[in-house]
Write the C-alpha cells for this entry.
Amino acid sequence: MPEFFFPDLVSALYQKWDADPQLKALGVVVYDGPPTNQASAGRRELFVGASGEDFGDGEDAGSTEQDWANANTVERDSVDQVVCGIWWAQDGPNMAALRAGVSEVLAVIAAGLRADVTVGGAVTFHAELTNVRWRQLQTTKGPTFGAVFVVRAQSRVYI
C-alpha cells in the first residue's frame, strides 16, 4: 500500500477520463498536467493535476493531508485533492453555449466518479468532485469559459 495516494490518483483520473467514450464523443482533449498555451478555439480541454489557468508559470497540482486514524499509530487517514480544469474557447460571441458545453463535460465527470468511487482502486474509500469555480473571459480571439474543480479523495494508509 502506498504512503501517498496522490501520484496514483492523478494517473488514474487521467487514464479514466482519456478513455471515457462520453468525453470523447463531446470532443474533450485530456491532458496530464498543465497547458503549454491558452485554450485552442473549438476544443474542450480537460487538465488533470492543473487548473489550466496558468500557462507555463507553474501551479499546485493538488494537496495531501494525513492524520492518525486511531490511537494505535499504524493507520493514517489521507485526504488528497487534485486540481483540474475544463476550458472551452470559441470563435464568436456565444458565451452561453460555452457555459452549457463545459457544464455538460463536468456532469459526465461527476457521474463517472459516482459510478467508480475508488477510481479503479487508486484510493481506498472514495473520490468525489468538489469545489467548482466557474471562469469566463473575453480574449482577442473570442470568449473562453472554464470550470476549475477539485477531485477530493479519502483513503486509509496502513503503515
Q: What stands out?
A: The mean pLDDT is 86. The beta strands are 28-32, 44-48, 62-68, 75-89, 126-139, 142-158.
